[in-house]
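INFO  loader      accepted 1 record
INFO  loader      residues=417
INFO  predictor   begin
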Amino acid sequence: MSVAVKVPSVGESIQEAFLAEWFKQDGDLVNKDEALFVLETDKVTLEVAAEVRGVLKILVPAGETVAIGTKVGEIEPLAQGEAEQVVPADAGQEAPPAGLPEPEEEKQAPVEEGKAESLSGSRLDLSPAVRRLVAEKGLDPARIRGSGPGGRITKADVLLYLEQAPAGIPEPCTAPAELTASQAPPAEVRKPMSPIRRRIAARLLEARRNTAMLTTFNEIDMSGAMAMRKAYKEEFAARHGVSLGFMSIFIKACVAALQEFPEINAFIEGDQIVYHNYQHIGVAIGSDRGLVVPVIRHAEKLSFAGIEKAIVDYVAKIRENRLELADLEGGTFTVSNGGVYGSLLSTPILNTPQSGILGMHKIEKQPVVVDDQIVIRPMMYVALSYDHRIVDGREAVTFLKRIKELVEDPQRMLLEV
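INFO  predictor   done
INFO  writer      dumping tokens
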């Protein structure tokens, strides 16, 4: 008896989702807990896995919007003894029908010595999502270490490789012949907006229409933060298992400043102001499917290590499409780091209904005046966008100045001065 593959419930407020991509083809063998397809909603992206091992039958193709609970496929469990007759999908090729000789043109030539390892990273072993990402980034799969079954390269492996590669993205390799089209690309390409992209667009317009948004700027000398990070980096990593980054320093500074200026941690609801006696800090993280803002809850109770661990956990969830709606709800303030992409200065847009968002930017050496002397210091521009309906200019400027003081001398946060 076949097992139905249905669109799972991902939250009470979500009634439909976008079936973005199937990882398998119709008729492929799938293993239990193996990812079948990517589901996108207006808030999260997640992978849906197989409940049993068997042969997949696809009923709804990729690119369709489906209601929660819709049956999009079936899995026919393998009968006793059938497992040996079907080549697993991980092998990257279909098995010939039983009793038929192998076609001559599909027989593989003997593998030359020294080339055996490269076959495990060839595009034959890649899922459609990984194959597309490798092609877009011009990567050589043989250089990517796979963490999947049998050393199979997963999407998370590719993203980790890109993040750890020197200078961001490695030099492109020569694309396989079948991936390079001889004909010229079309002049225009139209694609429907994904639910997440539509949600982002709607939220940005909502922030523009329904808030009186202003932005104030300042600059921070990062010498103190960099010195502290350098001094304790190895000991911190050895003790806590995570690296000490600048994000935790800024979040701790934001928590202290928000406690001094509660209006920036408050919301407007109708004709009332809702103050929060806690700091739930949203951290804007870019992904290949759009910007998401998971929330670090009760950041006021967390240490530097606790904050760094929370960020690492969220990054892993995003890579593996395991982010849940609960991870995105309840934020009272947001921190966005455009510096990781090279931004020198920008104006962040409010994440409504929040009243404030801090924008971090790249660190760049600049000449500054210290004690009447011109010196070179690593400087970062920071921007605070705020809702002027609830936050006055004086509070906004003083709030940002307080963050500057704490980041420039991060030991103050440990002494609470």
